[in-house]
Amino acid sequence: MTPIFIELQASLDIEEAARWYEAQRSGLGIEFVLEADFAIERIQENPKLYLQSYRGIRRVLLHRFPYAIYFVANDTETRVLAVLHQARSDKTIGKKLL
């Protein structure tokens, strides 16, 4: 298992989404964070299990929320780049990832 690093932007994405969900219903923001943490654990266990979706960047979908975690993985490390809502256009997602 290689080490996993979460970029600042990805952490900010998670915090922003969690605040929004918490405003919708008390406790829902925590549920979002737990779901994101679970997905990151799955990434760390086997990052190459997930297909490349954009210029070598892989993604994993969250189960309960319409978000995806975008990351890059090589033999020495995995880096989580962003956590984005799936209603965004491919063009917007591409700009966030570059």
Give a verbal description of the structure.
The protein is α+β, with helices and mostly antiparallel strands and 98 residues long. The chain has a single domain, classed as 2-Layer Sandwich (YaeB-like fold), CATH 3.30.2310.20. It has helices at 8-24, 28-45, 90-97, and strands at residues 4-6, 52-54, 57-61, 67-73, 78-85. It has a 5-stranded mixed sheet. α1 runs antiparallel to α2 (28-45).
User: In the residues, how many domains can be counted?
Assistant: 1
- Write the CATH homologous superfamily: RelE-like
Tell me the number of helical segments per DSSP (H or I, 4 or more residues long).
3
Q: Sketch the topology as an H/E string, one letter per element.
A: EHHEEEEH
Q: What is the mean pLDDT? A: 91
Detail the poorly predicted runs: none
CATH architecture: 2-Layer Sandwich
Which range best describes the helical content: under 10%, 10-25%, 25-40%, 40-55%, 55-70% or over 70%?
Answer: 40-55%
Order of neighbouring strands in the sheet with most strands:
1-5-4-3-2
Shape: globular
According to CATH, the fold-level topology is YaeB-like fold
Task: Compose a concise summary of this entry.
With 98 residues, the chain is α+β, with helices and mostly antiparallel strands. Helices cover 44% and strands 27% of the residues.
List keywords for this structure.
single chain; 98 residues; alpha+beta; YaeB-like fold; five-stranded mixed sheet; 3 helices; 5 strands; globular
